[in-house]
């Protein structure tokens, strides 16, 4: 082992109490950083998962119809038009059949599901409820919103007369799997009615959605909502959640359609997440700073205490650089030990937290927070760099000691 | 006579900057030490003995004059060259509390070699053990300094100073904190190494009894050499 390592290790062993304190301090810091990072990213992942559990990442819709003034202003003219916004009809996306395979083949997009949706009423006996009809292909749609996983009864199977309905709606209308109900479309001029058999009941996790949602077969919905061959929107899922907005903007530019990502429709959530990231970043920075200052201050005391030994080492031929390296190594060593201790401590805290803190219904708050490997790696790496930086000042002081003076003490 | 090991010419040393109150401690010292010489450096407190020893030991630079060590003009050397020269040419024996407390006797003796070569080999470890056996500490090899008596610590310090077989050993009151009996033993030990391997010794001492047993006595008074005489009576002593 090189001289500097031997001396650094021996000095650390000799000052057991100081070493324990400094390692403990660094460990506590690393544990806090790990815990907060894991907790916050776990909470965020959970929130996003919940929000996106019932939403597509990106939704493509037809362009809104815009009213234009009858006469544009010509040269030297002033036109003062009064333009009323148009009421938006239910319309199909232009050329959606051609768009679908293109989207399927696009990198970054993992699922594509065209949909026909529109308003209707569900009737049973005297009761009538306002509903939203979603005409989907179950195989495709299941990859956007995992309806199959959220079923509380029946199956996500959509024959021409089948309907999968929300839990609350089933309760409101007294429906069970296998029961029949009628729908009446809300179109004023020629209402269409059709009878459906409940093939499944789904709990989407949001009461309002559970009260309104009725999934029917894609073609059935086309007929029901008078959009033969049409699709009112295309739902997409992407592999990089936070790249959704970029993909959406790209699609909008290419297709000329209205493309909205979840990041646009959930701006408040996104703002909250960003605020959270900033605050955890701040906490992390300050904890790292405190740990570094702690390491530095203990090392400064160390250098003062070890003056005579440093002088002896120098008299025996140790160079200034050597002495400096001894203290830099000490900084790095306590940082490594501290970050290993902190990693163990942090993992323990996270495990204990997930076990103790639960949702009101007793289910775990998180689906087990996984602490990613890079988090440990960056904690340890950051601690080593921090330890060395913290040790720089004391190490330089040690190297500057005048050996003749240090020995005379 | 062979070329001197140490050649000091008009060496001066002052402390404090020029604008400050400057104090000159050494006023032009001329001194030559031959290889294998066993010299006592005596003088009252504050006469500059320790400063002179530090200068010769390259622990601090002189303010003026020329210092040639083993044929090299030290003023022209870089900081790292000075450190390397010190490591190979000079062994130090300080007062007894100057062992490294965190290291055992053997490790203390190994330290100069470790610093110079970066590594400890099995042979070096064996050599260190032999050296310690030589100074009578065969049964204390793995003791920490605080478990050793003052005399024993000083033996370790001598073994350490000799571990790289330097041509010159500088000793600053090596027996200052010891009883007469231990002091005699330590002194005899240094004489033995001087006779056996031709190592030159420069020993600062307050003890006229010990000074009389050196081959040459240099007396320093008020930063100047007041006396420099061979001491023929010492032969056969030790």
Task: Explain the overall architecture.
The complex is a heterodimer of chains A (409) and B (238). Chain A is built from 15 helices and ten strands. With 409 residues, chain A is an alpha+beta fold. The model of chain A has no long low-confidence stretch (mean pLDDT 87). The radius of gyration of chain A is 33 Å and the shape is elongated. In chain A, helix 2 packs antiparallel against helix 14 (373-400). Chain A folds into two domains: 3-51 and 270-408, no CATH class; 96-263, no CATH class. Chain A has a six-stranded mixed barrel with strand order 2-3-8-5-7-6. With 238 residues, chain B is an alpha/beta fold. In chain B, 34% of the residues lie in helices and 26% in strands. Chain B has seven helices and ten strands. Chain B has a six-stranded mixed β-sheet with strand order 6-7-8-3-9-10, with helices on both faces. In chain B, strands 2-1-4-5 form a four-stranded antiparallel β-sheet, covered by helices on one side. Chain B is globular. The mean pLDDT of chain B is 87. Classes of the chains: A alpha+beta (409), B alpha/beta (238). The interface between A and B is medium-sized, with 26 and 28 residues.
């Amino acid at each position: 082992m090189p001289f500097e390592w031997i001396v650094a290790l021996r000095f650390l062993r000799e000052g057991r109490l100081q070493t324990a304190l400094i390692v403990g301090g660094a460990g506590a810091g690393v544990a806090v950083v790990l815990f907060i990072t894991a907790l916050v990213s776990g909470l965020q992942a959970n929130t996003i998962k919940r929000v996106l559990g019932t939403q597509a990442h990106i939704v493509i819709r037809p362009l809104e119809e815009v009213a234009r003034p009858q006469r544009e202003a010509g040269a030297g003219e002033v036109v003062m038009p009064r333009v009323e916004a148009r009421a938006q009809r239910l319309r199909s996306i232009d050329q959606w059949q051609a768009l679908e395979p293109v989207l399927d083949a696009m990198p970054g997009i993992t699922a594509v599901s065209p949909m026909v949706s529109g308003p209707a009423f569900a009737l049973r006996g005297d009761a009538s409820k306002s509903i939203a009809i979603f005409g989907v292909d179950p195989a495709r749609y299941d990859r956007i919103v995992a309806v199959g996983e959220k079923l509380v009864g029946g199956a996500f199977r959509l024959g021409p007369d089948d309907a999968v309905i929300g839990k609350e709606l089933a309760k409101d209308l007294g429906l069970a799997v296998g029961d029949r109900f009628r729908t009446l479309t809300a179109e004023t001029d020629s209402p269409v009615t059709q009878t459906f058999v409940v093939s499944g009941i789904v709990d989407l996790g949001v009461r309002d959605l559970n009260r309104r949602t009725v999934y029917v077969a894609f073609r059935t919905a086309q007929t029901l909502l008078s959009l033969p061959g049409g699709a009112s929107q295309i739902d997409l899922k992407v592999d990089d959640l936070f790249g959704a907005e970029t993909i959406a903007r790209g699609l909008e530019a290419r297709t000329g359609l209205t493309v909205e990502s979840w990041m646009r429709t959930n701006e408040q959530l996104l703002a909250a997440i960003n605020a959270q990231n900033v605050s955890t970043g701040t906490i992390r920075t300050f904890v790292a700073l405190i740990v570094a200052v702690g390491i530095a201050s203990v090392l400064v005391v160390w250098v003062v205490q070890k003056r005579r030994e440093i002088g002896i080492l120098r008299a025996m031929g140790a160079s200034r650089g050597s002495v400096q390296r001894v203290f830099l190594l000490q900084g790095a060593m306590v940082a490594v030990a501290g970050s290993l201790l902190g990693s163990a401590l942090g993992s323990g805290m996270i495990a204990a937290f997930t076990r103790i803190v639960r949702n009101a219904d007793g289910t775990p708050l998180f689906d087990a927070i996984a602490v990613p490997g890079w988090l440990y790696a960056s904690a340890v790496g950051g601690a080593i760099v921090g330890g060395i930086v913290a040790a720089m000042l004391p190490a330089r002081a040690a190297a500057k000691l005048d050996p003749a003076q240090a020995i005379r003490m | 006579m062979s070329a001197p090991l140490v050649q000091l010419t008009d060496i001066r040393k002052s402390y404090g900057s020029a604008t400050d109150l400057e104090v000159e401690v050494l006023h032009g010292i001329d001194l030559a030490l031959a290889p294998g010489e066993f010299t006592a450096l005596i003088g009252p407190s504050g006469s500059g003995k320790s400063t002179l020893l530090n200068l010769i030991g390259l622990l601090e630079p002189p303010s003026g004059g020329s210092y040639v060590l083993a044929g090299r003009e030290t003023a022209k050397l870089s900081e790292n060259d000075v450190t390397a020269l010190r490591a190979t040419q000079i062994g130090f024996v300080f007062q007894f509390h100057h062992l490294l407390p965190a290291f055992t006797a053997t490790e203390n003796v190994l330290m100069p070699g470790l610093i110079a070569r970066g590594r400890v080999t099995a042979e070096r470890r064996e050599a260190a053990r032999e050296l310690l056996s030589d100074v009578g500490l065969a049964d204390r090899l793995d003791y920490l300094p605080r478990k050793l008596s003052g005399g024993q610590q000083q033996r370790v310090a001598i073994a350490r100073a000799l571990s790289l077989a330097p041509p010159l050993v500088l000793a600053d009151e090596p027996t200052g904190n010891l009883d007469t009996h231990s002091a005699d033993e330590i002194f005899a030990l240094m004489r033995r190494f001087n006779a056996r391997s031709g190592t030159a010794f420069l020993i600062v001492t307050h003890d006229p009894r010990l000074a009389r047993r050196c081959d040459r006595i240099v007396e320093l008074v008020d930063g100047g050499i007041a006396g420099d005489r061979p001491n023929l009576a010492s032969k056969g002593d030790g």
